[in-house]
Amino acid sequence: MKKLILSAILLGAAVAAFACTNLIVGKKASVDGSVMCTYNCDGFGFASPLTMSAPGRHAEGELITIRGWGPQTAERFISEAPYTYGVVGLMNENQVAIVETTWDGRRELMNREGYLDYFTLMNLALQRSTTAREAIVVMHELVQEYGYSASGESFAVCDKDEAWIMELIGKGPGHKGAVWVALRVPDDCICAYANASRIRQFPQVKKADKKKTYCEIPGECMYAKDVISFAREMGFYEGTDADFSFREAYGPLDFSAIRYCEARVWSFFRHHSDTAEMDAYLPFINGRTDICDHLPLWIKPLAPLSVRDLMNDMRDHYEGTALDMTADVSAGPWGSPYRNQPVNFFSSDSTAMFRERPIGCQQSGMTMVCQMRDWLPDAVGGVTYFNMDDATTSAYVPVYCGINRIPEPFRRENNDIHTFSTESAFWMNNFVANMVYPRWSAMIGDLRDAQKELEDYYAEDQKTVEERATKLTPGERADFLTRKTEEYTDKMMKRWDKLAKFLIVKHNDQIAQPSENGEFVRGRRTSPAYAPAFIDAVKAQTGDRYVKPAEKK
Description:
Elements: E1 2-4, H1 11-16, E2 22-25, E3 35-42, E4 52-53, E5 56-57, E6 63-67, E7 75-79, E8 83-84, E9 87-88, E10 91-92, E11 97-104, H2 118-127, H3 132-146, E12 152-158, E13 163-170, E14 178-184, E15 190-193, E16 214-217, E17 221-224, H4 227-233, H5 246-250, H6 255-271, H7 275-279, H8 282-285, E18 298-299, H9 307-313, E19 344-346, E20 352-354, E21 364-372, H10 378-381, E22 383-387, E23 397-400, H11 425-436, H12 440-469, H13 474-506, E24 515-516, E25 519-520, H14 532-542
Parallel strand pairs: 1-6
Antiparallel strand pairs: 2-3, 2-15, 3-21, 4-9, 5-8, 6-7, 9-10, 11-12, 12-13, 13-14, 14-17, 15-18, 16-17, 19-20, 21-22, 22-23, 24-25
Helix pairs in contact: 2-3, 11-13, 12-13
């Protein structure tokens, strides 16, 4: 018997994920003792719907069909596990969540003969794991047996008790397996990844356990036995074991990796630590590695973080920092944090230039905040706050890991990238976002009001939902949580439909009608002002052309 697994189940995400952000929070760094991780899955021209796989028992000899993405399209087969757990999005029924960010690394270590790309690997691990530690071991065993086909990858692997970070890269043509390191994030710390390798030195065992195919310091660190020796074999490293840096060997940084990737980590840390202390790393963010060559891997936050904190962190554009995308002339007349040109471009005199790359960006195919809680039944404790498109311009909808069907607006068949539909979460979010992007400062306030209204409602209603759900039988609980998740999704869709119509009426012909609490009121229409930086730039470029002469008295 053969069962087809869609390794392209999030194909758009897999293809486009070289632009993602993960934020990670240990249980003692959160306000309520939950473990949390996040994911903005970014890349132009794709929609990333919510997916689901049911739990099941499987016969001996049953195989899974793997069809890779990219150049590798041939069907391949791997053995099914005796039992697989249910998965909703990127969290399974045991509250194990895995999110990722790609960092490419040494291109010669790509092995297209490997069976497993990173997204297939993540989904298989979720189907086969009860804890984060087990998921890491499963990922190791799978790439050892079947080979790894993608480039350098970072995974946040979390459960209701622990958060781990894992960096992994293949071994190149002719080599099965991968080299990797996984570290447990201290419970009282926060961590982040954004398309750059971040693990440098790591704790090492004094003597490898011959019974294991990997090395482990229980509860602290796990790594491939040959992670150092393979680097020496390839000529990537010549020093002592104690000085070995995974990042320097397999994913060394250049200016692009620092400014477009590590800067996102810096901004997240800056939200939750002493700003002056974090601003001391600005020389590094500006490429001055002679002054400073790395950020801390994790930090202790000044105050515990909530789910809402992480939602807002996922909407960051460096506001209030030296990299603020709303504060100079490139923000345009409406002070927008969005840029239409590529990250790298040239001026008219052929000067090489770049733009900032923030956490929040218009090319997100989906966004999620995963929360795992050990004091609740798994079906209730695991929540993925999810939506499709940009985190900045959408509202996070609670999706419980114990549901038994996907809400219609998040289903793949309702989110065709080529066909607009008011039944599609992707298109309704884009409908609103693409009205707001060109006239940011004039319209973003109305969007934020609707966003807060929804997220406030969800947060309050969840208290009653979760109290009731804990008292139900498992079957009743699944049905109840499914209905509530569908109601939450429907409420979001209706609110965004209302918001879209409100925005086009209020801001028609670039004149704003007065409104209060989302409703129009009588009053004089106003013409919103351009951003001061833009006005000053116009004056500097045009001289006296638009300077009004003094009135004669």
